[in-house]
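[scheduler] slot 2 assigned
[scheduler] job type: sequence-to-structure, two independent chains
[scheduler] chain ordering preserved from manifest
[runner] begin chain α
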Amino acid sequence: MPNESEGATPGAAYPWADTRSPKPRLSSTEASAYLLEQHGIHVARATLDKYRCVGGGPSFHRFGKRVLYLRDTLDSWAMHRLGQPLDNTSRT
């Protein structure tokens, strides 16, 4: 099996271990950073924690004690919160 110094692609033998691919599920801290980076929306980790208790936040999964968010769910939630683009502020 070729090693990296011989031009092998990192993770080729173990595609699941490829560190270049994005994580499919994000922790609360990572979800907060993702929303800021991808959508320009600052939602603190503590706010996501509160939304899990009172509702209104993105859907999440539990893995034992860990809370995980899917990227697609975060994207959908952010776009829903942003609403439709507006071209003026009048309410006519």
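[runner] end chain α
[runner] begin chain β
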Amino acid sequence: MEQVILGKNTMEKLSSQETALLRELQRNAKFDINELTERLHMSRTSVYERIKRLENEGYIKEYVAILDQEKVGLNFTVIVNVSLISQQKVHVDRFLEQITALDEVMDAYVTGGIFDIVLKVVVSSPEAYNAFASGKLSAIPEVSKIQSSFVMRYIKQTTALPF
């Protein structure tokens, strides 16, 4: 059976079947077991055992339902570039601690380059974003500058990793 090595800094190996299983689960974690066993040429028991092992070893972190933003009234997505007053670890850590508590922040990245942090923020409207930016984000003492880009159209959205 072919072994696939994942990541540059890991010696962990997955079989080609386990890799295929992970790809299938990324597409649909609410799978039909008969379809999955047929597609992967594995028994039901083998599929369930491998899923349990992949969960226990941390390859599978969690299962979620991906909701339609518009149907739940969150029609406005903003990419927010944030500069901090200082790049000292204490300031960055304080800022990150505060934004992790903000429900509107879907993704947050510490970046190199012009801005220190990039956020993906999802809200219901431009007015809701204004309230978020002025009432919550700019109220964080470590924030020096905020630059907002409003998403006009989605080209690609995925949660599946390309491995």
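[runner] end chain β
[qc] chain β: The longest helix spans residues 44-56.
[scheduler] slot 2 released
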